[in-house]
Fold this protein.
Amino acid sequence: MVIMMPRLVEPERMALMRIAWLAMTLALAALSHYLTSKFAPSRSNSPLSTFNFQLSTFNSQLSTFNFQLSTLHFQLSTFLRTAAQLAWLILWYPDTYEFNRCFPNLDHHFAQLDLSLFGCQPSLLFSQLVPSTAWAEAFCMGYWCYFPMIALLSVVVLCKDWRSGDFTTFKRVTATIITAFFLYYCIYIFLPVAGPQYYFHAVGVDEIVQGHFPHLGLYFSDHTDLVTLPGDPDGLFHRLVDNAHATGERPTAAFPSSHIGISTILLLLARRHAPWLIIVLLPLWALLCCATVYIQAHYLVDAIAGLISAPLILYLAEWMLRPFLSRQSRC
């Protein structure tokens, strides 16, 4: 922000968002410290020999209850702190647009690359080849399930750790997901690709069909109109995706597809920590991968790059976190 300040459109809003994030993080940390200290079990070493058997038993039960209550508050505060950072990813995503809108758009290169590799525009033809409203609704469901898939894996790992009382796996998994998101976001800051849903709308489908891909420069700096979603506008998941686009979508983050990249990382993490969950995630993942091209959110090369980049991003995220997580384990 400091380097690009003269070119940013809304630096004040971006600064306020970061202040709000810092305030939230510190407040949740303070709340966690208060709860764990407030309900910590007593460590008094006063002799129990002076008490009768009934009182000794009562004190023992009370101590056990206090310990369980302290553990419960620690678990809840850990969950809240982590959930808040995961939820904030939704706000960090449009922030990539605030940076890359300062650079000339590159969609003409990626649209040309799709044509060169596949001899057509897959993102334009897919919905025409599969015009069924049932399939459109299924693809929209897969696309909308992106964040629920993240929540599902996190909750499953949390419940697994809850029984053991050790939250190391939950912290490791959620920290990896958050770091993977930020690695993709760093790419999007400097790679301004809006995707077919914006580019095709801006230049016109006729131009795309004829193989003309105009260079738009800084057009998306102040134009955020996108194509209408295929399918039935009254469909439940069609409306959910449409509402999500209306509130949080921006002409950014097309290459590589983080929807495919992150969802593939979820499969890899589930295979490691909750293999049975793959049965649930895999069909949603397949629908999501198809949906990215079907609803014209991504070029086919974006989808392929998202799939290829997933193992690399996962490795980098875990490598970056290793010093912090190993130190936390020792503590």
